[in-house]
Amino acid sequence: MQAANRFQRALKTRNPTFGAWQMLPGTNHSRAIARSNVDWICVDTEHGNIDDGQMHEAVAAIAATGVSPLVRIAANEAYLVKRALDAGAHGVVVPLIHTPDDARRLVAACKFPPQGTRGFGSPFPPPAFGIASLGQYLQEANEALVTVVQIETREALENVDAIAALPGVDVLLIGPYDLGNALGHPVLDGTFAPPLADAIERIRGACDAHGKRAGFYCTSGAQAREYADRGFGMISIATDVLAIPHFFGEALAAAKGGAVHAAVQAAKGAAARLAGD
Fold it and tell me: What keywords are annotated for this sequence in UniProt (predicted)?
């Protein structure tokens, strides 16, 4: 199972993993993103337009491409963890983890006994790992799945060392927008105020100190490269609902002709007139 979890394999090599955020529903949409050859796709059921059934279908579609499906659940609730993992997710991303106790409850919900309290019985996960045996899934899931906690509140920042130290927590993912809001320094123009930048480095340092990987929510390839160079391990490169209008907007601007295009056309026209004189 661990061999099939592309996300976990990359994390263990200490190389950066690059992924995408899916907020729009549809398995064709999932497969189209997967064709970019990202390591993982996070199916967002917190802020995305994706319901439980659509999440199930997206997880299966992503896994079939060899990309790791992750699911961001809406809250730190055991039944939401169960639904995501029972669909075959290779890991869960969980928002609003405030304290070490919050993280302990999450880890317990992710693990089968004796390490945790997760119930057993879903037939959907084995195909997502390319295995036929439900028994094999039961025996290997605790080690093969990835638990990602989001650090996005002032309280979580204060507790970051204790959270990072917990067994079963694999990645601490920074949500810079919520964290900026919580610290009184909202991200309005894409720049991070010094207190937010310091907090980001504090979280990365806690991960390094406890042998965990740090994650960062990026919205562009250039930003993703920056955080990869800074030692972050889980990095998004784009979010579908933002990337689609951006791409089409750029294509439309090029089609209509911007200032440079207009200047080139004007120069060509002037040259043609001179040639005709």
Answer: Lyase, Metal-binding
Q: How many angstroms separate the CA atoms of 88 and 214, rounded?
A: 24
Between CA 140 and CA 56 the distance in angstroms is 21
Task: Note the pLDDT tens digit of each residue in 16-27.
Answer: 999 999 999 999
Q: What is the pLDDT of residues 35-57, one digit of tens each?
A: 999 999 999 999 999 999 999 99
Is residue 47 annotated as a catalytic residue, yes or no?
Answer: yes
Q: Which of 29, 47, 210, 261 is catalytic?
A: 47
Task: Please provide the distance, in angstroms rounded to a whole number, between the alpha carbons at the two ends of the chain.
Answer: 75
Query: Token pair of 210, please?
Result: 């406890």
